[in-house]
Amino acid sequence: MTDHYDVCIIGSGAGGGPVALTLAQAGYRVLVLEKGPWLKTSDYFKDEIACCRRSTYTPNLRDERHVIEEREGKNWKAQSTYDSGWDFWNGNVVGGSTNFMSGFFFRLKPQDFQLRSEFGPIKNANVADWPISYSQLEPYYTQVETEVGISGRVVAHPFAEPRSTAEFPYPPTAEHLLSRVFDHACEQLKLHAIPTPRAVLSRPVDERRACEYAGYCGSYGCATGAKGSARVALLDRAIKTGQCEIRPHAQVQRLISDDSGRVTAAEYVDTVNNIQRVRAKIFVVACQAVETARLLLLSTGPKHPQGLGNRYQQVGKNLIFSAGGSGRGEFEYADFSTDQAQALKQIGPFVNRSLQEWYFINEKQLGGKRKGGTIDFLLRHPNPISRAVGLRRDDNDELIWGQALKQRLKNEFTRAQYLDYEVFCDWLPTDDCFVSLDSAVKDKWGKPVAKIRLNSHPQDVIIGTYLSNQAKTVLTAMGAKNISGSASTSPPQNLMAGGCRFGTDPKSSVLDSDCRMHNATNLFVTDGSFMPTGGSVPFTWTIYANAFRVAEIIKHQL
Amino acid sequence: MKSLDIWNRTYSRAFLDDLPHRWQRRAFLRATVKTATVIALAPLVSSLPGCSDQRSTSPPLSQAPWPTLAAVQEILLPHDAFGPGAADIRATPYLHALLQTSDFDPEERQFILDGAHRLDDICQEQHQRAFLMLDPALRDPLLRDLAESRVGDRWLGALLTYILEAMLGDPVYGGNPNGIGWRWLEHTPGFPRPSKGLFHA
Ligand SMILES: Cc1cc2nc3c(=O)[nH]c(=O)nc-3n(C[C@H](O)[C@H](O)[C@H](O)COP(=O)(O)OP(=O)(O)OC[C@H]3O[C@@H](n4cnc5c(N)ncnc54)[C@H](O)[C@@H]3O)c2cc1C
Ligand code: SF4
């Protein structure tokens, strides 16, 4: 126990990065403990086998798995992710999952902070108001636009959230032919096409180059530095202050607390499996929702016999995802002129269009005033292996090979361009969606793994279906063929939050409105875990913004 | 169908049930990653061809069962005027290198290699000769029969997956020479491309 830091941050992604930068810039000694390796921009390539066919940036599931519980009739069926292949790791390297995100960035709406007051209670759902308001977070949303780098163009639409600045600091990224087709269709349908804001630089800043439009963005590490990962946008700058140290390959297994309940040290295993301890005045946990809950539950102490902050059994509860669904339409090259077909085939420039026309809905068929969501339109991911592997079985799950397979491949790859849509709506928090420790399955160090019980609320699918149908109408107006799509009850494992709600009542929340643990005043949680509800958008802009907000609070506490 | 029954019984139902995941079928079905990836970052094996110590974990390419595996791969992806076949995309060396990696699931490796021997047993039983000696016209029907069984379906499914990886993965991994697979499917690869086929932390 030689080291003594002002702040020790566990996890180097969207939740950890803003805190490290803010406090290092303010002159405090910051240590970041990250379980994965420290890869640099020059270590990332467009390599589908590395990115998406092997556990290159995530743990081997044989060594570190999760257990997933799903409903089967009246019972819950548990299966480890090693057995199912349904991987809940999202990126375990310095910068976390932000290295691999697509960076479609949205703010929440003011009403998202007051969902229970705005829409009333929903049966079997634990909807709660946030203890802070949109206007309290707004300055930090704005800060993220410049600190992380968000490109976009502000347009007026019925549910546009208030902004304190007129425009984004970076102009929109380059656009695909289908963006224009989309805008045209929306004009006809009297819808407001929104250029999707992106955490992608459209022009260079310092050592970060502008996007080079390689066409492979989501799931891939960025080789230019354009993508606003916590690593390039925040941590590299924190290091430059000389005040921040990042220790990769440091798997934190436990936080140690004293008789007063305060955290005194973080205990981690290093590369050679030695146990190390570090002390700090303040600890910040940002391991992503599931692993954050697991670490807290593993961290028992004299004042925390059931895990840190788990006095009222709230740690891990009300886990949420981004509900919704997805779909696709096809644009056959044969229906276009040679030049247009050429432009359609282009991969690189983004479609970057979304709709928030139905963020709030008032429809008789849905029972009146309801919370709706966002639809994002994007080119189909180009990953050829995954597309091809999907073609080796027919609809009846029978294998296809030989001539028939070759024809299928050729047809799939050369006939059409595909436009996808993704629906984002609230994943209502329920009693049946939470993280706990598995009593039998352990990781390679012998520690219990996280067990995730999954449950989606029936309303999620109703709203998801409604939005999915709207998306199909737009695809039809665009002239797409073979339109398909649906809502889903399966959570997108890469868009998770909740589990350590912030709130004013310690009985129903883990953190106070500053994201400080109710009964451990030198412990903060800054990843998405704090969110009582998720908004109808992907979360990362909000996670970044809140982490900047909490960093200011920590600064004052130090 | 005695040999097939024995083969089927060699692997527990649980092992075979798991296989779709190990070869990504279930992962593909269940993947719900949103925001520009409809594929999950699902694992298959945890390391890449070439990044292990080069322990010889399977016989050299010239020895059994590799010639049989190569013949099966050529049926699954035949060379014709329409496009490249398994040999053109170097599917066999790709698979060979992949199985060499020390991290490759040992059970899966065994399952793939063993499958070729089982195929020979079945072929002996039905046609009184090894698969490589069988009239080429009879080979595809034999595989189609095999695919009716659970174990055969899983085995062929795995071989197909690795054929497609060889065809559309980066050439640094040993398949897809000069991007032949990409060109055939008019696919534009991303950039920068990997300079080496492995990933060192
Ligand atoms: C393919 C993909 C596409 C995405 N696209 C979008 C998008 O378009 N828009 C959007 O808003 N969001 C997107 N996301 C989601 C986004 O990446 C996450 O919301 C965000 O990164 C979450 O931040 P976090 O801090 O909770 O976790 P992370 O950023 O994952 O950081 C957590 C870090 O903690 C480390 N850690 C975990 N446990 C320990 C431990 N015990 N000890 C030490 N370190 C530990 C992890 O290794 C990791 O590096 C995408 C994600 C993926 C994977
Ligand atoms: S260069 Fe652009 S397209 Fe490529 S990963 Fe970075 S942000 Fe995405």
Instruction: Summarize the main sheet of chain A.
Output: 8 strands, mixed
* Quaternary structure: heterodimer
| Uncertain ranges of chain A | none
Q: Number of DSSP helices of chain A? A: 13
Given this structure, which CATH class of chain A is correct? Alpha Beta
General description of the model:
The complex is a heterodimer of chains A (558) and B (201). With 558 residues, chain A is of the alpha+beta class. Chain A has a single domain (3-557), classed as FAD/NAD(P)-binding domain (3-Layer(bba) Sandwich). Chain A has helices at 17-25, 48-53, 81-84, 115-119, 134-149, 177-189, 230-240, 289-298, 338-345, 384-390, 403-414, 458-477, 540-557; strands at 4-10, 30-33, 67-72, 75-80, 194-195, 244-247, 251-257, 263-269, 275-285, 317-332, 353-355, 360-363, 368-371, 373-379, 416-426, 434-442, 448-453, 481-488, 496-499, 516-517, 520-525. In chain A, strands 1, 2, 6, 7, 8, 9, 20 and 21 form an eight-stranded mixed sheet that branches. In chain A, strands 5, 10, 11, 14, 15, 18 and 19 form a seven-stranded antiparallel sheet that branches. In chain A, β1, α1 and β2 (30-33) form a beta-alpha-beta unit. In chain A, α1 runs parallel beside α7 and α1 (17-25) packs parallel to α13 (540-557). The mean pLDDT of chain A is 96. The longest helix of chain B has 22 residues, at 106-127. Chain B has one domain. By secondary structure, chain B is mainly alpha-helical. Chain B is globular, with a radius of gyration of 17 Å. Chain B is built from nine helices and no strands. In chain B, α1 (2-10) packs antiparallel against α6 (106-127). Chains A and B meet through α2, β10, α10, α11 and β15 of A and α2, α3, α7, α8 and α9 of B. The site of iron/sulfur cluster has 11 residues of chain A, from loops. Iron/sulfur cluster binds at residues 200, 211-214, 217, 220, 222, 224, 226-227 of chain A.
